[in-house]
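Is this the right way to post structure tokens for a design question? Let me know if I should format differently. Anyway, here goes:
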């Protein structure tokens, strides 16, 4: 499948709001209000990390894999950011956060807590988690990059944002902290 990409790299929010969802526009407004600069690339919907390779090359970033997880009882929810090309095994994470039997959380909780649909999971969705029901987990390898790539709560655009701005401006503004985890690379 070929992904259509508007190869124009934009700085900041779209000039026109036509065809943009309110949650996407709200994301741009928040980033702008926090004086967080970003570059943007518009494209067809990317429902998987595999479809993001052209986006990565054009923005000069590695798109993060963002997984929405929960414990077996569905009482604890997690957003895991990790390198897109790293394999995920629940046992490696479960031990580090003392949570047995992690699995993917359902779409209903994703929409309720983060106002995000599958394929659009992003750290920027934490702005919608005003009750802090989601714990952010960041793989240490993500922090090695100067910038991260993520969606503005919709998977038809991708953003390049400085990692330091996410950690030092965005997370404090949305009242979230993060737990650092170390997930192994597969041999």
């Amino acid at each position: 499948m070929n992904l259509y990409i508007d190869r124009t790299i934009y700085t900041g929010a779209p000039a026109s709001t036509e065809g943009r969802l309110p949650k996407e526009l709200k994301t741009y407004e928040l980033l702008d209000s926090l004086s967080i600069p970003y570059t943007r690339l518009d494209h067809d919907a990317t429902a998987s990390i595999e479809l993001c390779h052209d986006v990565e090359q054009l923005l000069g970033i590695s798109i993060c894999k963002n997984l929405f997880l929960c414990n077996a009882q569905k009482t604890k929810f997690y957003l895991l950011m990790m390198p897109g090309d790293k394999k995920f095994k629940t046992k490696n994470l479960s031990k580090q956060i003392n949570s047995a039997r992690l699995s993917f959380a359902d779409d209903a909780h994703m929409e309720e807590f983060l106002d995000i649909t599958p394929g659009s999971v992003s750290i920027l969705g934490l702005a919608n988690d005003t009750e802090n029901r989601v714990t952010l987990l960041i793989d240490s390898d993500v922090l090695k990059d100067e910038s991260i790539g993520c969606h503005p709560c919709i998977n038809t655009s991708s953003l390049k944002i400085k990692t330091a701005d996410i950690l030092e401006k965005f997370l404090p503004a949305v009242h979230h902290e993060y737990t650092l985890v170390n997930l192994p690379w597969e041999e």
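Format looks fine. Someone answered above. Worth noting: The chain has a mean pLDDT of 91. The chain has five helices and nine strands.
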